[in-house]
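Blackboard transcription, Thursday session:
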Amino acid sequence: SQTIHQWPATLVQPVGSPLSLECTVEGTSNPNLYWYRQAAGRGLQLLFYSVGIGQISSEVPQNLSASRPQDRQFILSSKKLLLSDSGFYLCAWSRGPSGELFFGEGSRLTVL
Amino acid sequence: AQKVTQAQTEISVVEKEDVTLDCVYETRDTTYYLFWYKQPPSGELVFLIRRNSFDEQNEISGRYSWNFQKSTSSFNFTITASQVVDSAVYFCALNGGFKTIFGAGTRLFVKA
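(Written on the board underneath:)
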């Protein structure tokens, strides 16, 4: 069966510090991968998606970046965090471009 | 542009009541997919259903049912005989290609 994990689950970071969130998928190959952000009490905003290794599409221009160094690994990064980067970050995968999304447990980021 | 509107921000019901969550979408695509997801207090989103634009048959799964009407661009979700465990945020979502966009969500409170 397929599983998805992301970490860390919770982190508190000062403004201006770097960020790295990791997500891995097991049990499938060549998944479509996604990073979403959910601000407190709000809906999900698509940040990045990837259809293959090294292929990243950005949906929202900001100080975040994503990378896919391996087929089933997706990383969300920032060189310098802003207060507005606080939120709940969710990694997800799908079998195809229009398939249902399977989400990780989420990473709650607080920038102080 | 694609858009998903969930006009109901919060709904509160008493256990055993029926409740309908509304979803209205906008898209110019002729082929698209609609989804519902549940986000319990733990935060991890759970896939509930996927429908394609060519299948307007209503679907029932236990206490859950979905009504898809292309004429009104709606994909509503009904929970029959609600239970406390149904308390969660429910998201409607739309996919017309590689990206899935979400509505703002409806928070459902089911009181015992």
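Lecturer's comment: The CA atoms of residues 10 and 108 of chain A lie 5 Å apart.
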